[in-house]
């Protein structure tokens, strides 16, 4: 099980407190100057569940779950492996997907859900149903599961849906390895710009250096955005300068990566 | 003063209100499914609404350090519209979701046979899913509506002590209390309770099983009325413990019956470790 796209995100997660400055973007999508939360890292692995191969994810998660939660997850994964598919109004693995948060705790729900989807061998159709019928938390888990389960671009509509939302947790999950691999250049540039707009740290964007390299159109968009911020008397996000620097080196590779084999 | 508003329709409020709620001490809310002021015409509108209650609203709330939960149901008013009732068949897949802490708002609006059917069916759904129920009492013919509601509850599979009867007032509090149900009071300008009458009721009937909410929605309402009740309780000689019981611990005890209450704002992972922030009431 190889994972050529594993680009660890910053491991020093700095959770905000309940009293932290708000970061909700305005309805018109204009940026806020609030605190931008760093990528979360409840597994202590320096990655999200999208980056970690499922075997390693299961090991890391098992070490952190309570005995009751671990027993529940083991049973849920066995059920999902035995009864995959989307027969009937709701499959047993879809029920387990729904209740994973209260069984495993909010910090470990993403990882547990990715493992359940993987155990159920959910394909693009099953993942689409799980996304469309899911809560925001379930949708985030589906986005994290895409690189493990969908070899081609068939699940891109889910990424595009998430990128249309103003829920920064979904936006952050949408720019993971699956988007890095399959999103076309125009959509990827807009996704990155949306991260800057909504305060999603660009560390969430997988394969950032490769996709930004020598991308002159991205550089133009970033420069224009910086000018607009400056003209309005607003600060320019530090992340913008980081990405701009990445565009200024090497030769272009701004399109999707070459198709990868299914990884797991 | 820490406040849990057990009944507020945040989907009708602006993000400014979340900021004001946090400043007033609100750290948790429950948003019951209800009518939108404009009639829905198909189950699809319900699906979009439920998705917002399970996605966008918890996200908005979390930005202001507020834990958002919801209750899911077909409301009494639209239970009379055959274009809407098919949504009853879709409720089970929502009732298994995290952060769904009750079936509600169910109950009576005009006390029709269609409302009888929807109420009984949804009390059964609550029993089947291990959830308590939030039952709205009607605006018109309230005392008769309360009696008929309690009769249906007694005939259902759901024990009365897993039912919160809401929008109570001076004329309905005694029978509701005698039934063993939890007691909800909406402090809402003009049409429901006000702060002064609420504190008088608390003095007469005590704080046991009493929940105070704003029921703030798209109407001329005030999301900060629970705070005003707390302030008036203190001014009138109630202890801080009494206030905490009514405005914080009673809502947790009732919705904790679901086993799904998480006082960590959605998805932020804040202030949690080893699941300690998860309140598993009833387990």
TrEMBL record, chain A:
Domain of life according to the entry: Bacteria
Region Disordered: start-end pairs: 1-53
Compositional bias per record (Low complexity), positions renumbered to this chain: 1-38
Protein name as it appears in the record: EboA domain-containing protein
Organism (species): Streptomyces tagetis
TrEMBL record, chain B:
Keywords: Hydrolase, Metal-binding
Transmembrane segments: none
GO molecular function: hydrolase activity, acting on ester bonds; metal ion binding
InterPro entries named in the record: Metal_Hydrolase, TatD-like, UCP005295
The keyword Transferase belongs to this UniProt entry's keyword annotation: no
Record flagged with keyword Hydrolase: yes
Coiled-coil region list: none
Top-rank taxon: Bacteria
Similarity remark: Belongs to the metallo-dependent hydrolases superfamily.
Protein's name according to its UniProt entry: TatD family hydrolase
Source organism of this protein record: Streptomyces tagetis
């Amino acid at each position: 099980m190889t994972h050529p796209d594993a680009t660890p995100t910053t491991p020093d997660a700095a959770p905000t407190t309940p009293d932290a400055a708000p970061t909700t973007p305005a309805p018109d999508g204009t940026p806020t100057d609030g605190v931008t939360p760093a990528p979360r890292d409840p597994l202590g692995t320096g990655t999200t569940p999208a980056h970690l191969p499922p075997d390693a994810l299961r090991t890391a998660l098992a070490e952190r779950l309570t005995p009751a939660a671990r027993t529940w997850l083991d049973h849920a994964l066995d059920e999902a492996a035995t009864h995959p598919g989307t027969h009937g109004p709701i499959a047993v693995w879809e029920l387990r997907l729904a209740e994973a948060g209260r069984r495993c705790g909010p910090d470990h729900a993403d990882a547990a859900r990715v493992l359940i989807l993987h155990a159920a061998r959910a394909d693009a159709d099953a993942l689409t149903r799980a996304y469309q019928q899911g809560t925001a938390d379930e949708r985030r888990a589906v986005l994290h599961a895409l690189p493990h389960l969908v070899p081609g671009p068939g699940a891109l509509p889910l990424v595009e849906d998430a990128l249309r939302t103003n829920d920064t947790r979904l936006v952050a999950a949408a720019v993971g390895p699956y988007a890095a691999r399959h999103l076309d250049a125009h959509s990827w540039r807009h996704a990155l710009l949306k991260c800057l707009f909504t305060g999603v740290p660009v560390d969430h964007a997988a394969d950032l250096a490769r996709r930004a390299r020598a991308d002159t159109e991205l550089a133009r968009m970033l420069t224009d955005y910086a000018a607009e911020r400056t003209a309005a008397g607003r600060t320019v996000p530090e992340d913008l300068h980081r990405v701009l620097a990445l565009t200024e080196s090497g030769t272009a590779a701004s399109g999707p990566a070459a198709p990868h084999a299914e990884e797991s | 003063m820490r406040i849990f508003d057990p009944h507020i329709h945040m989907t009708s409020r602006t993000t400014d209100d979340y900021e004001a709620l946090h400043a007033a001490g609100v750290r948790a809310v429950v948003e019951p499914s209800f009518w939108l002021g404009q009639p829905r015409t198909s189950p699809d509108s319900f699906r979009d609404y439920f998705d917002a209650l399970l996605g966008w609203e918890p996200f908005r709330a979390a930005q202001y350090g507020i834990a958002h939960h919801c209750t899911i149901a077909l409301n009494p008013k639209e239970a009379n519209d055959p274009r809407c009732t098919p949504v009853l068949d879709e409720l089970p897949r929502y009732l298994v979701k995290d952060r769904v802490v009750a079936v509600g708002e169910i109950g009576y609006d005009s006390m029709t046979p269609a409302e009888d059917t929807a109420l009984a069916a949804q009390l059964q759904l609550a029993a089947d899913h291990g959830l308590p129920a939030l039952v709205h009492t009607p605006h018109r013919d309230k005392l008769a509506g309360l009696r008929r509601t309690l009769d249906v509850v007694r005939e259902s599979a759901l024990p009365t002590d897993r039912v919160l009867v809401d929008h109570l007032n001076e004329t309905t509090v005694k029978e509701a209390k005698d039934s063993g149900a939890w007691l909800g009071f909406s402090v809402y300008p003009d049409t429901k309770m006000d702060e002064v009458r609420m504190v008088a009721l608390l003095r007469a009937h005590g704080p046991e099983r009493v929940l105070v909410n704003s029921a703030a929605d798209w109407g001329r309402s005030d999301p900060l009325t629970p705070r005003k009740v707390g302030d008036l309780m203190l001014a009138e000689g109630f202890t801080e413990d009494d206030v905490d019981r009514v405005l914080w611990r009673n809502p947790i005890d009732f919705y904790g019956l679901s086993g799904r209450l998480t006082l960590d704002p959605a998805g932020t992972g804040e202030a949690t470790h080893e699941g300690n922030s998860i309140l598993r009431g009833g387990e």
